[in-house]
Amino acid sequence: MSGPAPSLRVWDRLVRVLHWVLVLAVAGGWLSTFWLGFTHQPVGYLALAAVLLRVVWGCTGSRYARFTQFLRSPRMTLAYLGLLLRHREPRYLGHNPLGGWMIVALMGCVIGLAVTGWLYTTDWFWGDELVDQLHQALAWTLLGLAALHVLGVVFTSWRHRENLVRAMVDGRKRGPDAHDIH
To answer: What is the chain's Cα-based Rg?
Structure first.
């Protein structure tokens, strides 16, 4: 009789710290539109710094931090989606293909928010309605993507019977089963 597979360190400390810094910065950016407005710009720049550092780490960091480990081609991603819809998707130790592209979408949205937010403070674009509308559209898009991300985490945790939120705190996941993708 074999016991459960031992846990493995999947996400390193920097990935986890940047993830939670980004969560707090996005929450702070949203809250600062209603309260403590003077914090809006600083938390926006904090979010940008976290994303830029994550991009660097995605090119140079540990195995599961690297984009090459979790970004799959559109064809592979659609194949994964098909398997998911048939309840036959494999478990990934790192991010699954949909999760990988969600990371890219979230980071792109944060970069777009930071750029439009900065443009809005320049002499050239101060008060520009189009920049303001784009910034607001990106903000709502980011909130929608974040909600989808959380739903994906909950769903994947349930489907594969592992606590992904805990894994993003301690970095550890259940070791691979025979059909898992490393």
So the answer is: 18
Residue type, 156: T
Sign of CA dihedral 69, 74, 75, 81: positive
Cα separation, 3 vs 82, in Å, equals 31
What pTM does this model have?
A: 0.91
pLDDT tens digits for range 44-69: 999 999 999 999 999 999 999 999 99
Q: Would you say 29 and 43 are in contact if contact means Cβ atoms under 8 Å apart?
A: yes
The token duo for 157 is: 């945790």
Q: What are the start-end ranges of the H helices in 32-128? A: 40-60, 67-70, 74-85, 97-119
Quick: pLDDT tens for 17-29. 999 999 999 999 9
Residue type, 76: M
pLDDT in tens, 25-43: 999 999 999 999 899 999 9
Q: Shortest CA distance to 108 belongs to which of 48, 32, 172, 26?
A: 48
- Report CA 126 to chain centroid distance, whole Å: 30
Written as six digits, the tokens of 154 are 């909950």
Intra-chain end-to-end CA distance of the chain, in Å: 24
**Could you tell me the two tokens for 179?**
């059909």
Tokens describing residue 109: 């949205």
